[in-house]
Amino acid sequence: MPALLNDRKMRVLFHRQATPRILLFYLAILGKIAASALSAVGFVLKSAPAMIAGTIVWLIFFAVLLAVALPGTDRFFRDGHRWLRYTAGAVIVVLLLAGIAQSVLTSLVGLQSIYGDNSESNLGRLFLSLDKVFAYNDATSLSHQAADNFIEGKNPYAEANIVTAGIKYDIAPDKLTPLREGRLADAFPYPEMARLESLWQEAIRHPDQVPPELESRFNYPAGDFLLPALFIRLGVEDIRIIYLILILPALVYTVIKVPRDLRIFFLIALLASLELWNSLAAGETGFLYFPFILLAWLLYKRNLWLSALFLGVAVAIKQIAWFIIPFYFIVVLRTMGIKKLLLTVLIIAGVFFAANAPFLVQDPGLWLKSIIAPLTDRMFPLGVGVISLVSGGVLDIRSPLVFSILEIIIGAAAIVWYFLNCRRYPDTGPVLAVLPLFFAWRSLWGYFFYVDIIVLAAIMINEYGRNTTGITENMAKV
C-alpha cells in the first residue's frame, strides 16, 4: 500500500484542483459502504452490536456528507488538505480493489463455491446472503409483473400477486416482505428465516392464494411500471438492464457538465461507489428514480421547466422521491420567486396525475390503498436507522407511532432550517430530504444510496463550475 501512495503519485492523482470537500466525499463513500456492511451483518446474524454499530456509522456518513455540502468546509480543512489527500487516495485504492475482488468472486468463482455446504456457520450465512443479493427482490418482481400486466391490458394494482411473481423470478424467501398478520402476528422483532421458508413453500403450492402474512400489493405510483413497460415491449426482459439504459444518459450528461478539471474525480467517485452498482445488480427499485432526481436537482438553475419535468417523473415512480419535494420547492421559491414556484408545482403535479389518473379513476380505493400500503400495512421494523435499537432487541417498542413522530419532528426541523439557509447552503437539500427516513419504522438501505452522488455532482457543476476561471480560483480562496 505505501508504494501505491507515494508522494509523487498522490500529487498526480490529487493535484490542487481536488478541494477538501471532494476529498471528504471519498471518506463519505467508505463510511456508507462500511455502514451498509455492518447493518447487513447485523441483520443476517441477528447481531445487535453490529446493527447498532452500523447505525452509528450511518450517522457519521450523514455528518460527513453534510460537511461536503457546506462551502465553508474548504476553508475549515485548509490546513489538513495534505492529510485528506493521502487518506482519500488510500480509500480509493481500497474501494477499487474491493470492487475488483467482488467482481471476480461473483462472476468467475461464485460465492457459493466459497462457503460450500457449510451454510450453518456465521461466515457461511454471510456468503449465502451475499450470493442472493444480485437477484430480484419482491419489489422488483412486483414491478416487473405490473409492467407485464399493463402491457396485457390489465390493472396492475388489481392483478398484483407476490407468489406468482416470486415463482417467475425465483425470489429467495428472505427477499419477501412479511407482515405482522396471521401466523406471524406473534413474531417480533422479525420472523425467523425458517418460518419464512415454511410459509413460502406452502404459498408456492397454491399460487392463487396469497397468504395474509406476505405483502402482495403493488404499492408504487404508476410510473414505476409505465417506464419499464416501454422497454419490455421492445424486448428488454431484465428490468436491471432497463435501469442501466435510463441511468447512462443522466450520468453522461453529468460528466459532461462537470468542469473538465474535476471529471476524473467524479468518475472515480462513481467507480468507487460500490453500493450504487450493487443496487443496480440487485434490481433495487430506487435505481429507477435516481437519474430523474439527479437531473432535476442539477437543472433547476439552468432549465427550470425541464428540471420540474424530471422531478415530476421521479415522484410518479416512487414515494421516496416525494421527500425531496419540500426542499425543491423551497430552493425554487427562495432563489427564483413565487411565480417560478407555481410553475414547478403545476408541472410536477401534471406529470404525476397524467401517469396515475387512469388507475385512480378506474378504482380510486384500490389505487389509494396500494399507494399508502407502506404506511397502513403491518410491516415489521427494519432498516439501518434508529430502528436498529428495536430490530436488534435493545428496545421493545411494537408500535411505529414513536418513530413516525420522530420522523415528522426531524423532517419539520430540516424544512425550517433549509428555508432559512438554502441560499447559502443549497446543496444540503438532498441530504436533509432523506434524513427523516433514518428515524422511520422502515429505514431501508436503499433510501440513502443515491443522495451522495447527487450532492457531489451539484457541488462540482453549480459551485465549482460556475466561474470561467475554473477550480484554481476556488482553491485560491482556500
Structural class: mainly alpha
* Overall structural domain count: 1
Spatial ordering of strands, largest sheet: 1-2
Order of helices and strands: HHHHHHHHHHHHHHHHHHHHEHHHEHH
Largest sheet: 2 strands, parallel
- Count of helical regions: 25
Beta-strand content bin: under 5%
Described by the principal axes of the CA atoms, the overall outline is globular
Oligomer kind: single chain
Low-confidence stretches: 1-16, 108-118, 468-478
Distance between the termini: 30 Å
Overall mean pLDDT score?
87
Give the strand tally.
2
Relative helix content: 55-70%
Gyration radius from CA atoms, angstroms: 23 Å
Structural summary, described in words:
This protein is an all-alpha fold and 478 residues long. The protein has one domain. 65% of the residues lie in helices and 1% in strands. The longest helix has 29 residues, at 81-109. It starts with 6 loop residues before the first helix and ends with a helix.
Keywords:
mainly alpha, two-stranded parallel sheet, 478 residues, 25 helices, disordered C terminus, disordered N terminus, 2 strands
Question: What's the quick description here?
Answer:
The protein is built from 25 helices and two strands.
